[in-house]
């Protein structure tokens, strides 16, 4: 079973483990490679500029510090740093991004997308830290997935996310990240794939509705403003109230509801 959830939701990283086993890639010292896996490192270096540009554009700010990516070519390497070795990539709390050998193997095609998703977490982590208590997890993961153009939310389709909403399985908008207890998708009866996809659709809807307001919101969040306060300041209402507009649209709009529109309503007697 593959896990699409990134370390922020499903892993408990070994934060303090030293990183002495990595060496800088000659072509790009931002990429730190496990010795012997330089070819993997070269692929990461090739994907890095676009990934950084996507994150900085989506966050409307440059990285506070040049990001570093640690590339594990072996399972042993990845296991030393991340407690959930099935993960494809992970950001750990002290802003070290570790990539797993999966992204050089069976999940090779996901490298760019997951690198971007994790760099989005790293970017925000540099400014406000990780496990920030005021940021709802749907926003945290939805924004990273949106930034990565679906990366990290790629095991469920939009249609599946809409179907879950119509079936009454909605993201718990109130769940927040806390250092001691990470909220999981199960808390809202969604599977992890539906949770990521629905979260991405929520954040994408906010941005599409009014990008200037969305930009004001995320700049405030990145300046360490409490999420709820920032949301009220920008939108003049709470986020649950605002997002009811998204849910109502999914519930009523025929374009989200293909299966039912083809059936004519029965004639009244
Ligand atoms: Zn994530």
UniProtKB/TrEMBL annotation:
Protein name: Peptidase MA-like domain-containing protein
């Amino acid at each position: 079973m593959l896990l699409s959830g990134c370390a922020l939701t499903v892993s408990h990283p070994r934060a303090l483990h030293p990183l002495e086993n990595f060496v800088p890639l000659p072509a790009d010292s931002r990429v730190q490679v496990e010795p012997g896996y330089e070819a993997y490192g070269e692929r990461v270096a090739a994907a890095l500029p676009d990934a950084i540009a996507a994150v900085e554009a989506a966050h409307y700010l440059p990285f506070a510090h040049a990001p570093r990516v640690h590339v594990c070519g072996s399972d042993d390497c990845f296991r030393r740093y991340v407690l959930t070795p099935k993960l494809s990539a992970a950001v750990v709390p002290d802003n070290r991004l570790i990539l797993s050998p999966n992204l050089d193997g069976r999940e090779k095609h996901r490298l760019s997308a997951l690198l971007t998703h994790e760099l989005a977490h790293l970017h925000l982590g540099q400014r406000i830290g990780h496990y920030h208590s005021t940021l709802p997890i749907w926003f945290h993961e939805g924004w990273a997935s949106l930034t990565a153009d679906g990366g990290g939310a790629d095991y469920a389709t939009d249609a599946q996310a809409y179907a879950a909403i119509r079936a009454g399985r909605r993201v718990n908008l109130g769940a927040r990240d806390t250092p001691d207890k990470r909220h999981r998708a199960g808390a809202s009866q969604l599977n992890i794939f539906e949770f990521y996809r629905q979260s991405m659709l929520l954040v994408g809807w906010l941005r599409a509705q009014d990008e200037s307001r969305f930009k004001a919101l995320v700049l405030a969040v990145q300046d360490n403003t409490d999420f709820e306060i920032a949301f009220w300041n920008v939108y003049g209402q709470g986020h649950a109230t605002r997002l009811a507009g998204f849910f109502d649209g999914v519930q009523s709009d025929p374009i989200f509801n293909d299966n039912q529109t083809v059936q004519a309503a029965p004639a009244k007697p």
